[in-house]
Amino acid sequence: MDLRAFLAALDAAHTLRHITAPTAPRFEVARVIAAQDREPLLFEELPGYPGWRMVAGYVAQRAHFARAIGCELPELVARMAAALAHPETPPVVANAPAQEVVEEQVDLTRLPIPRYHPLDGGPYITSGVTVITDPDWGRNLAFHRLLLRDEQHLVARIVERRGTDTAWRKSPEGLPIAVCIGLPPHVLLAAATSPALDVDEAAIAHALAPTPLVRALTVPLEIPAEAELVLEGILTHELDSEGPFPDLTGTLDGVRQQPVFRVTAVTHRRDPIFHALLPAGLEHRNLMGMPREPTIFAAVNQVVKCTGVTITPGGCSWLHAVVQIEKQGPDDARRAIKAAFRGHSSLKHVVVVDTDVDIYRPQDVEWAIATRFQAGRGLYIFPEQPSSSLDPSARQIPGEKSRSDKLGVDATIPWDAEKEGYVRVKY
Q1: pLDDT average, residue stretch 375-383
Q2: Which H or E run includes 9?
Q3: Of 2, 247, 332, 391, which residue is the catalytic one?
Q4: Domains in the chain, please, with CATH?
Q5: What is the pLDDT of residue 355?
Q6: Where are the beta strands (DSSP E) in 4-128?
Q7: CA-CA distance, 65 to 61, in Å (whole number)?
Q8: What are phi and psi of 252, to 5 degrees?
Q9: Comparing C-alpha atoms, which of 69, 91, 84, 52 is closest to residue 276?
Q10: Does the annotation mark 247 as catalytic?
Q11: How much is the pLDDT for 35?
Q12: pLDDT computed for residue 82 by the predictor
């Protein structure tokens, strides 16, 4: 289903809140989202931007991803892992909702691009999925925040040595790109994954749910046909200042010299809907953390029977995970801990629990630690490991991978214990 069908389903379930009061994209939208971060919101009136609506929060709950691909929440990680392992080539259609309206003149200031915080470098697109083609590896979908510079230009934050950066460096005349905004949850989820270089994220999306593509109008790319808004153009080799802007941890990212995106065409649906994704909010966290869950799931399943994985919001949806296993031997928890760190190299702390613990309830996980964990037998410390630059406590080494001490907690029932003493009474 496209974004509109998904929002209609939320509306029918009485979980979509309509904001009918006029709400300005400059600061006001961000304040409303922050106050109701778990809730899907549809802003009906944006002063100064007639004809536009704005949506936020529709992927702030992981249950919404499960709804979008038609599965139950406990099945979600396995469905994601299957799509990563078995991508499906999406079809290309001749006509698409994303191209219902072709703007005669490129003027980015007519778009309701939000300004989230007074310390931001300016108005930012945060929900755009960038489509490129690498000369060697093929199509790639990824998220890049975009700072509005003027009517025809944005400045893109491109992380060094990742897919877009390497393709851009191979393209001396500039890299053709298209930025798609207002996409269904399964496409957002697929775009946030980090598969092998030759794996197409659009094919991962199509393995999760139907994802038709359409040829862009001014660049040689095929893009999601059901996007609400598409910006086509060239990622040039001109550099400009980008930032400051909040990062995943909620701390302020600095100013860098980054590539300028020259926009050559703007297309959109009739009565378009702009997606505002609050930086460091739950949507941002889910889209960062959830795509790492299937990689942990796959890595742990190589050594023990893994039945669930979640990367937790309290760990910035990046640094902490809970892994659920069906224990079949005395060393399974230790093996699961080591495998989890292989499955997500930025992971800092991991807790392993039994199948009777609800990994989506922090109090359940804490209960397991309280009643099943002893530091003398179940605490594993791995000093000076490669880690994440998002962790301000990590040892940052210029030009090298950050380093951190990592910790694993075995909160499973001891293998040689009398199991009856560990069973929780339920009413």
Answers
A1: 96
A2: helix 3-12
A3: 247
A4: 3-286 (2.30.110.10), 302-418 (3.40.1670.10)
A5: 95
A6: 17-19, 41-43, 53-56, 92-93, 101-102, 124-125
A7: 8
A8: -85, 125
A9: 52
A10: yes
A11: 95
A12: 94
